[in-house]
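Quick log. Single chain, no ligands specified.
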Amino acid sequence: MPAQARAAALGFREDRLLTMSIQTFEEQWSALAEADGTRPAPLFMLVDSAQDEQLLRSIAQAVPGTQSRCLLTHAHGPDLEKAAPHLVTMPPFDASRAFWHAVFEHGAANPARQTLIASPLGFDALYAHLQRYIEVVMPDDDEEMILAFWDPAILGTLVGQEDDGTLHVPGPVLLAPQRAHFLEPMAGWWYWGRGGTLHRIRPSASPSDQSVPPLKLRQAQVDALVEASLPDHLLNYIREIRPQSLHQVPQAEHYARVERHLREARNLRLWRMTDLFEYIAAALIFGDQMITDPAIRELLMKVKVKEISITDAVEEFK
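-> predicted structure:
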């Protein structure tokens, strides 16, 4: 397909997804009546300022009186806060407002920057609930780690979002009581998958009080979360260290291509970050040749059985 026709087709798809997402969200949010049945639950946004440091300012300018607070209490100072997650109050949804069209348009274009929450809780109560889950206890040594649930790829993996085919680790990582407690104050939680599609997380039907923060994770849960974050980490490394590998890949396909090649690398029994990086950077350039070219396939089989390193193999690719 010629480049111009491809761009037109992608633009049409994006417009259709935007319209569908707005319509779907409006229907779902409107159905979430509060206990008195008079109005839908208030809306909040989780903003990752590390992904878009201008978003908080844009919201404040578009919606005067917006309340926001950094979730990382140790992130003191403007330099740290501008790379941290924030909880933000949002106005009632109105599909006719340009503000909400921008929220959905940019959410699909940069899924990692925001998620939307509907909750009957006030700002302070919801903030306190989320803040309790920022740090979770590691197995064995009782050390703590940051649980980046504001990242849609991590959030979807935590709860096991079945309709999100872009998740590198499908999940769920959280055990049923942990998931129920985590989602208990939420009437709904929406995020954009890495393909730009809107997904709704539903709270558990039977909230449980058996899991009380801080969460203590099992090693298998920690391993799954580390693996879930790998596509983004590797994509960021490639953008920083070897950006030329992405020159022939459309921006919208970066994550999907890296995630696909990561799975291929795992099939070659590559585990070290440096080896994963080398394979994926090469696969982004050579594309289907990694599978169809007999010479490359032969080299990769040698990599799989440890006859040569992936670095040496890439050096021989033609």
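The first strand starts at residue 43 and ends at 48.
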